[in-house]
Structure formats: C-alpha cells, structure tokens
Amino acid sequence: MKNSATSSFGVSARIGHDSSKFYNSKLYENLYFDIKKGGKENPILEKNLNKIFCKSSENMSELPDNSVHLMLTSPPYNVSKDYDENLTLDEYLKLLKSVFKETKRVLVNGGRVCINIANIGRKPYIPLTMYVNQIMIELGFLMRGEIIWDKSASSGVSLAWGSFKSASNPVLRDTHEYILVFSKGDFKREKRDKLDSINKENFMEWSKSIWRFGAVSAKKVGHPAPFPIELPRRLIEFYSFENDIVLDPFIGSGTTALAAIDLKRNFVGYEINDEYVKLANSKIKNHKGLF
Ligand SMILES: C[S@@+](CC[C@H](N)C(=O)[O-])C[C@H]1O[C@@H](n2cnc3c(N)ncnc32)[C@H](O)[C@@H]1O
After folding, report:
1. How far apart are CA 259 and CA 236, in angstroms?
2. CB 66 within 8 A of CB 41
3. For 5, which of 18, 71, 146, 230 could close a Cys bridge (C-beta 3.0–4.6 Å)?
C-alpha cells in the first residue's frame, strides 16, 4: 500500500502517513510546550499508596516528583453545589492552576492528565474548557486531544428550553461534557515489560473522540457530582499500564479508586471534605469488583 502524506485535500486513509510537512509548517513555529526525554521515576512510599488524603491537592507533599503515571479527575465546578466554595472565576482558575502545577511536578515523564469538565451557565455561557486548556498550555503540558462525553442516554436531561418552539430565545440543553487530555514531557511511554489490559474492540471504540454512556445518579452515590465508573475505567485502560499509579486530586466519592482497583492499578486521592473521604473509604472497603 502507498503511504499517505499531508495534501491540500486531506487523505482518506492514514497508514504510514508522512506528516512532517504539517509539523514543519509555521502553525507550529511559536507553540510553547516542554519536551523532555527520559527522567528517573521515583517510588511513592508504600504507606502513601492506595490512600485518600483529606487535604487540598494544591500541596501533594506525600508524592515525590516524577512518581505518578496518570492523573484523572473531575474538578469542583464552583457552582454552589454542597461542597463548592463561592469563588470568583479568577480565584477558581487560580485554584485549578495550582493543582495542575503540582500535578505536573508529581507526574512521570510521559505521564497523562485527563480532566473531565463541563462548560457552565447560559447568561452568558462560561467556556471553562477554554480557560483550563489555556492554563494547561501555559504550564507546558502537551495536549493530546479532547473527548466529548455524550451523556444523552441518561434520564436527567434538562427541560429548560428557553423560548419553546420559538427563535425568541431558545436555549441549548447540554448533553455533553469534555475530557481534556494532556501529557507531560513526552507523548510516549515505554512499554518494556509493562502489561496493557485493554482489548482490541475497546481500543478501537475508545480511540474515537466521542464516548456515549449515561451519567450516574448523585443520590445513589451519595455525592452531589460523581462521574460514572465507566469514565475512569476507559481512561485508565486507554492511557495506563497495569500496576501504574493513578492520581485523582479531587476524588469525591472515590470512583477513580474503585476503577483503579478493578483494573489492577494503584491509586492516590485527595479530597478536602472529610465526609466524602469517609464515603470513599467505605466504598473501597465494601467494593465487590465491577468489571
Ligand atoms: C466534581 S467532585 C469529584 C467527584 C468524583 N469524581 C466522584 O466520582 O465522586 C469534586 C470534589 O473535589 C473536592 N474538592 C474541592 N476542592 C478541593 C481541593 N482543593 N482539594 C481536594 N479536593 C477538593 C470537593 O469536595 C468534591 O468532592
């Protein structure tokens, strides 16, 4: 088969694609990102592994530099949910930036970050994803892409139509959220003797940028804003190897920990609310295994 190359009209199949023309174009000339090859990984003390710390993740002093393989999280939304502080947008972004800066310190070279976030409000709409992408790029992360999580299969879709059946002021009812994906230092991680757990069918399906599965009931979980276990499950299998260390700096009810346990990964979580830490620890203790 003939290898493809970037052309004015795009190409239909991208097998053995030569993209050097695209990456050498001026578009990439002034882009800032940190590329670092190699770098030693540091072990996390046994006593700090598979544990949730009840404190702010702005300071993760329990974790050495270059020790975590995957960070995945859904940050607080600052929209006056039970657990939310009433921060200004600037204060809120400052909090996220300090957690993501600390995340960069603890990630190994090639380590990944997956941030599940939704844009919020209507009057006007606040594109939080735009601000978060900006922060991550300023911090020197390499963006890998973004996943649209289509939640329309869930029952609780909003009925706030705005002006129903009229162009007067119709309102978009968001049935999606985002998962923004980044790497530190290098896109690639060496496989060597590490084990993957993903199968062929899931790899082919999850490498598509739109994921469809329903949300989970806050009432059932006992936390105001949990994500369904399918979300960390896919990210963990797609972006990490078995025995890797998965960090969730806003772990809430512990969903990330449950997925990590089921998939033979280690976890570390941070959560400022001690009621949620208790809830997460009891879920972990009574966990039967989901997959
Ligand atoms: C969107 S929720 C995460 C829910 C979680 N994914 C789950 O499935 O349960 C965000 C969590 O971040 C916690 N939080 C807020 N600020 C924090 C901080 N500075 N450090 C650690 N946790 C924080 C909140 O208490 C809340 O439980």
Report:
1. 8
2. yes
3. 18
Q: What is the domain extent for residue 219?
A: 45-285
- Among protein residues, the one whose CA lies closest to atom 13 of ligand 1: 250
Strand ranges of the sheet holding 245-248, from the earlier edge strand across to the other edge: 51-53, 266-270, 245-248, 68-73, 107-117, 176-183, 142-150, 210-212
Does some domain include residue 18? no
| Helices and strands (H and E) in the chain: how many | 8, 8
Distance CA 102, CA 187 (A): 19
Measured in Å, residue 76 CA sits from the centre of ligand 1 at 5
CATH number for the domain harbouring residue 137? 3.40.50.150
Going from the Cα of 145 to the center of ligand 1, the distance in angstroms, rounded, reads 23
Q: How many domains does the chain have?
A: 1
For residue 107, tell me if it sits in a domain: yes
Closest residue by Cα to residue 238 from 203, 270, 273, 262: 203
For residue 195, being part of any structural domain is answered with: yes
Answer whether 83 contacts ligand 1 (Cβ < 6 A).
Answer: yes
Considering the domain boundaries, does residue 35 fall inside one?
no
194-248 pLDDT, tens per residue? Answer: 999 999 999 999 999 999 999 999 999 999 999 999 999 999 999 999 999 999 9
